[in-house]
Amino acid sequence: MGKKVALDERGFRKFSMRDNLAYAAGDFGCNMSFALKGTLAIFWTQFMGMDSILYGILLIVVQVWDAINDPLIGSIIDADKHQYRRNKFLTYIFAGSIGLVVAGALCFVPMPNAPKAAKIIIFIAGYVIWDAFYTVANVPYGSLLGLISDDPGDRASLSAFRSVGSLVGNMVPMVILPFIIYDEEQNIIGQKVFLAAFIMGILGFFAFQFMIKNTEIRVDTDVKANEEVVKFNVIKAMSNFIKNRPAVGATVAAMGMFIGMQGATTAVTVLFQSYFKAVEFSGIVNAFAMIPIILFTPLARKMVVKYGKKELARVGSIASVAAGVLLVVMPITPDMKGVIIYILCQLIFALGMGIYSTVSWAMMGDAIDYNEWKTCEREEGTVYALHSFFRKLAQGLGPSVALFIMVALGYVEENKGNQTMEVAENMRYLVAVLYLVAALFMFIGLALIYNLDKKTTEQMKVELEIKRAEEAA
């Protein structure tokens, strides 16, 4: 006889570690597909031989489509009132996970001798197909947090474990792949990147299935059979988003993070290729900097309950700003001493980032509630999708602008892993400035715009519970 499942007062399975692990598995699945995105610029400029400026322009083009795609799919999900067997969000995630098995590898089709026009088509087609399946899985996944539980502590725990799933999903390829996809001359091997992307797609699929099987929906927002379905108005939903100050604040912070950190990704690779002369160890160094996130995650729930999400995130952003300043002014030389200073600065930056990342998704869950609180319309898919829209713009704009700056600073793709020392030194300062920019945007979004402090969040939860009870009566 199986073990009896403990139920809460509403008849749902009680919130437990099972929910945390399931939600973490979802972000692990997303990152099995997303983690290699930071390798795109090196793959296409150094292996495929595409001009860096052309690549930067193409990346902006596909990223604009990527950004538009998110609210479109989010609005489709919100407007979908079909009664699915379990939950519509889980159904969409399942569909997206199937496509992601192969979609990630399509971004890394190794054909360096193909004509220029063919390379452009391969890049755009591969990216658009991958993005479509990724969005179908990722947008409803992000929306699920607010439906698994409405308890602030539970949400903080889910957000923290989502960060763990993301962390593991990033760290595994971050540490292992540099030893596999680069040769002794610090040059990338495209065929191995393609194979790695395919294997990661398979691992992601199984992670999604684990999440789907073990997810319990406890917040009922489905349309009842006798309830009139209000026609979805995407313009109104977008207007509501702009008026949603917590969503805007969280989005500004996320955009800054991606403009800075995603923009720094290519420059960091060149930094380790040509400045530190140890690209194979770049993943280990970056993974080591994640230690503060791992240490903070178990403390997240208790600290959120005691201090509040906004309050913690603000402290984290200040720590990251301090680390960004240190990266700019400290003597990071191309030797072991410089590597140690770089790692120490990264540890401080990651501490601030870790504090923010463990509560960031819970903050978006509260922003979705805020939309319902102020407009009486929940719109989980659209709020999350518009948040993702601006994140995606930043993910394209950051690497593209950074690559344009790299070219202006002397980066030559034909030199691959053997840039001049002058260029390598330029990368050292560019990386530092980009991290500082990321931290400053985080501070502005979290400390100055986001307005759901602990007291206001508690008031919102109470009033929403009363409203939902009245509607259910």
TL;DR of this structure?
This protein is mostly helical.
Describe the structure.
The chain contains 17 helices and no strands. It has 473 residues and is an all-alpha fold. The protein has a single domain (21-218, 231-472), classed as Up-down Bundle (Growth Hormone, Chain: A). The longest helix is centred in the C-terminal third of the chain and has 40 residues, at 336-375. The two termini are 38 Å apart.
Order of helices and strands: HHHHHHHHHHHHHHHHH
* Measured distance between first and last alpha carbons: 38 Å
User: How much strand?
Assistant: under 5%
CATH topology-level name: Growth Hormone, Chain: A
Please tally the β strands and state the result.
Answer: 0
The number of distinct helices, counting runs of at least 4 residues, comes to 17
CATH architecture: Up-down Bundle
- Main beta-sheet strand count, sense and barrel state: none
List the keywords.
mainly alpha, Growth Hormone, Chain: A, 473 residues, 75% helix
SSE arrangement:
Blueprint: H1 17-34, H2 40-47, H3 52-79, H4 88-103, H5 116-148, H6 152-181, H7 190-213, H8 234-243, H9 245-275, H10 282-288, H11 291-296, H12 300-307, H13 309-329, H14 336-375, H15 380-408, H16 421-449, H17 454-472
Helix pairs in contact: 1-5, 1-6, 1-7, 3-5, 3-15, 4-5, 4-7, 5-14, 5-15, 6-10, 6-12, 6-14, 9-14, 9-15, 9-16, 13-14, 13-16, 14-17
